[in-house]
Design goal:
Number of helices: 3
Structural class: alpha+beta
CATH architecture of the largest domain: 2-Layer Sandwich
Distance between the termini: 87 Å
Shape: rod-shaped
Number of domains: 2
Oligomer: single chain
Helix content: 40-55%
Strand content: 5-15%
C-alpha cells in the first residue's frame, strides 16, 4: 500500500508539471499564430503603401518632345499649296516602320509591336509631305519608342485608352513636323497592334 500511496503522491506532483507544460505549449502556439498574423498585416500594409506611393510619385507618362519651333527650319518651307478648295479629302502615309518596345512593367518579358499610318490633309502636297516626314523620321521614331516604352499594359487595354494614345501621337507628330504652322496630320490610324 505504501507503494500505491507513493505513486499517488508522485502523480499528484507530476500533474501540476504536466498542466504547466500544456499551458506553456498552448501559449506558445497562440504566440506563434499571433506572430504570423502580425507579419501578414505588416506585409499587407507595406505593400499597399508602396503601391500608393509609387502611383503618387509616378508623374507624367507622356514624354516631351525637344524639338522647338525655332529649331524647325522646314516649317517655313512646307506651306499648304493653294489647291485646297475646301475638300475634305486626305491621303495616307504608310511608310512609317513599326515600333517594338517592352512596356513599362517591371520584370516583364512581354513586348508591344505598333504600326501606324498617318492621315494627312490634302492641303499639303504628297511629295512635300513625304520629304518632310522622311527628314524628321528619326525624331518621330524616337518619340514613338519613348512614348510607348513609358506606357504600361494597363494603359493600352481599352478602346478609350487607344483613342487617347492616338490623339497624343497625332498632337506630338504635328508639333514635330509643323511646329507653329497649321497641323496637317488629321489623325493617326493603327495598322498593327500586337501585345506578346
Amino acid at each position: 500500500m505504501a507503494d500505491e500511496e507513493e505513486k499517488k503522491d508522485e502523480d499528484a506532483k507530476d500533474e501540476p508539471k504536466e498542466q504547466a507544460k500544456e499551458q506553456a505549449e498552448q501559449s506558445g502556439a497562440k504566440i506563434s499564430i499571433l506572430t504570423w498574423i502580425i507579419m501578414a498585416v505588416v506585409i499587407a500594409v507595406m505593400s499597399g503603401s508602396g503601391f500608393v506611393l509609387g502611383r503618387l510619385l509616378a508623374g507624367s507618362s507622356t514624354p516631351k518632345t525637344t524639338d522647338s519651333p525655332q529649331e524647325n527650319p522646314q516649317t517655313e518651307e512646307i506651306v499648304p499649296d493653294g489647291s485646297d478648295t475646301g475638300s475634305k479629302e486626305t491621303w495616307y502615309y504608310e511608310e512609317l516602320e513599326s515600333v517594338v518596345v517592352n512596356p513599362d512593367v517591371p520584370g516583364a518579358t512581354r513586348y508591344v509591336r505598333i504600326g501606324l499610318n498617318l492621315e494627312i490633309s490634302s492641303g499639303l502636297s504628297e511629295p512635300a509631305a513625304q520629304k518632310l516626314v522622311e527628314s524628321k523620321k528619326p525624331l518621330l521614331m524616337n518619340w514613338l519608342n519613348l512614348y510607348f516604352k513609358s506606357l504600361t499594359l494597363e494603359e493600352m487595354r481599352t478602346d478609350a485608352d487607344l483613342r487617347r494614345i492616338l490623339s497624343q501621337v497625332c498632337d506630338a507628330f504635328n508639333e514635330v513636323l509643323f511646329g507653329d504652322a497649321k497641323p496637317q496630320i488629321k489623325r493617326i490610324l493603327i495598322r498593327e497592334f500586337n501585345i506578346q
